[in-house]
Structures are given as structure tokens and as C-alpha cells.
Amino acid sequence: MALFVHKYGGTSMGSVERIKNVARRIAKWHAAGHKIVVVPSAMSGETNRLLGLAREISPFPDVREMDMLASTGEQASSALLAIALQKEGVSARSYAGWQVPVNTDSSYTKARIVSIEGTKVQDDLAQGKVVVITGFQGVDPEGNITTLGRGGSDTSAVAVAAALKAQECLIYTDVDGVYTTDPRVVPEARRLSQISFEEMLEMASLGSKVLQIRSVEFAGKYSVPTRVLSSLTDPLISLEIEMSSGTLINFEEDGKMESAVVSGIAFSRDEAKITVLSVPDTPGIAHSILGPVADANIEVDMILQNQSVSGTTDFSFTVNRNDFKHTVDVLRNQVIPAVKAKDLAVDEKVAKVSIVGVGMRSHVGIASLMFKTLAQEGINIKMISTSEIKTSVIIDDKYMELAVRALHKAFDLDK
Ligand code: ASP
Ligand code: MG
């Protein structure tokens, strides 16, 4: 018997019927003698509905009130789940974030967890209760309710698991694990039974949307064994089968000797590329260009600059497509006049495709197989960036799916 944290996403909590199924599943774990803490999301669509109501009233609603509002979604689903558990004959209790408490800083709508007080929860568990803790929310030092950013209940669950030293954090969701790539793009994509923490971190930051990136960072920081698995299976399937299903994010340094060199292909469509043309190749130029962009709170992803033989050079970088117009404004108004650049060249519709694998550390020629594969498909590479365990390319957005399919095949991920 051990302590497990279960997290159920919005789809898993999406209706009264589904909440009853979640309760049946938890009752099964509880009956086997395990201590269970559950962290639910709001019912699917609820957070959007609430935020939409506020925006109908005001285009720029106060962020403190937005957190007050958004946190109610999880409060409702948690209470409903506790009621469903009690109906199953399981003694259960739900707590809002501030009651635990889950302590956060005061950055409304994107707060960070500072600490979690586990005493009350441990007491309830010792009495045989299932404890339900609202995902996505916490409380700041002044007692204000905060939320952790969209998708934040993954992070809540992993943080609770870390604080309670749970044996495993199980993230139940509407997919049955982490795939070699998105099966909607490549039907042959396979579920990975294990993925290393570093690979998962890359996959999450490169556009695989299975887990919120901050939850993966948290899992890494506290070495929380985390499993992604389906909530849509029969809730009464054998515990043994359930405990080994899905994808386990592991922290083993060694192991995985037999595993593939490349584990997965991530992609993101929402990229835009901007080139500042003909800037003087002098010290401080990168800062003069990207300083004002950072000051405008715009996150820059890939950056490319060559040294020049002629005294001027082109400086390219990518941003999220949502930030494209804002970035162009900052460059035109502040940067171009200041650095005396010639002009901008823009590419609003690019995509990033990345191959990820810890095996890349010890194998050469991986990136070159990637480039060869893209060349054979006639796909032009606009930018390249590499790290120890990934290679990313920026390509025209209309070739993205073709690139992902070709790479999936070239690296034998369908086998
Ligand atoms: N309900 C929140 C959202 O929709 C948090 C979560 O689901 O993880 O973003
Ligand atoms: Mg989610």
C-alpha cells in the first residue's frame, strides 16, 4: 500500500457520468489499500466559459478578480467528485487551494507554487479518507486566491505529489500516453511506454501538448515519477494493468540501452520568423535588437546571426505567431532607427519541427539524417538549432505535416 496522486483533466471530469466513473476508478484504488489524493481540473469548457463572461463585461478585467472567478471551476468539480466518492461508499473530503494551503506568489493568472502544507491532508489519509484538492489554484501571502496559468492543474498534481512524497503521480487524460508524435498527423505514431524526463521536457516545450511544461519542470526538480494514462478505459480494469499502462516519465540516468536514438518528433505551427536586414556587425547589436523585444515581454525562441565579412549582417529570430505584429511594431518603432538597419524581412507562417532523443548524445549523424530526409522531400530549411538531445528546424508551415511524416519514417519510429 502506497500513496498515489491522481490528476483528472477537464474531459475526464466533463459530465456527471464521467465524474461517477472517476469515483469508481478511485474507489478501486482505495479498496486495494492505497492512499489516494485526487487533483481534478474544472469540467471541460468551464474555465473558458467563466473567463468569457468576464470579457463580455470588460476587455481588460482585473487579474485578481479573474483568478477569483476562474478558480471556481475547480472548486465545483472537486466538490462533485467528493460527493461521487461518498456515493461509492468511500469517505472523501475536498479542499480548495487556500484550505490546504497551496502557497503561491502573487502573480495572478500565472502564479508559482512556493510550498504546500501537507499536514491536514496526511491526517485525512491516515483516517482512510480520499482527499480531493482543487487543481490550478493556490493562495498568496495576503490570502488572495491565485491561479497557475492555463493547464495548471497538471502542475498542481505534480507539486502535491512532491510535497506528499507520493510513490507516483498519475495524470489521467483523454489520450493514453505520450506518443512518438501526434497521431492526428502520423497515424502510425506509437505510444512510448517510458520517456526520460529530459526528453519529456523537450517534447513539452517544443509543442507536444500532453502535459503543461511547468508540471514537467516540477517533476524534474523533485524527481516525481509521473505517468500519463487514459481516463477513458473501463474504470474497473485490473489495478495491475492500469498501473503499468500509459507512459512513465522516468529519471534513470542509465538504463534504456536498447532504446531508439530518437524518441519522438515534436512540432509547433504557431511560429513566425523575422529578419532585421543589414545591421552593423558590432558589439552590442544583439542586445540592441532583442532588448526592446524582451522589454515588451515577448519571448524569443530561435536566434540566428552570422558574422559578416562586409561589416553588416542579417539578424533573424522567431517568436510565437501571436506576438508577431507586436514584435514588428517594436522593431519598426524602436530598433530599426536605433541600430540603423535597412529593413525587415518577415515570414509570418513558419513551423518548427524537432527530433528529440537522449540517444543523440552518443550517436553522430542524427541531424544529418534529418537534413537528408527533408532534402529528399524538397523542403527548404530556414533555420536550425540544436541542443544535446534535440535538433529543430524552421520550415514553411505548409510542409510541416509532410516533414513530420517523413521524419517519423526515416527514424523508424513506426516500428
Ligand atoms: N481549468 C484550468 C484550465 O482550463 C486548469 C486545467 O485544466 O489544468 O486551464
Ligand atoms: Mg489540461
UniProtKB/TrEMBL annotation:
Residues 274-358 form the ACT domain. GO terms for molecular function: aspartate kinase activity; ATP binding. The keyword Amino-acid biosynthesis applies. ATP binds at residues 7-10, 173-174, 179, 184, 209-210. CDD domains: AAK_AKii-LysC-BS (cd04261), ACT_AK-LysC-DapG-like_2 (cd04923), ACT_AKii-LysC-BS-like_1 (cd04913). Keywords: Amino-acid biosynthesis, ATP-binding, Kinase, Lysine biosynthesis, Nucleotide-binding, Transferase. Gene3D superfamilies: Acetylglutamate kinase-like, VC0802-like. The keyword Acetylation does not apply. Belongs to the aspartokinase family. This is Aspartokinase. It comes from Candidatus Kinetoplastidibacterium galati TCC219.
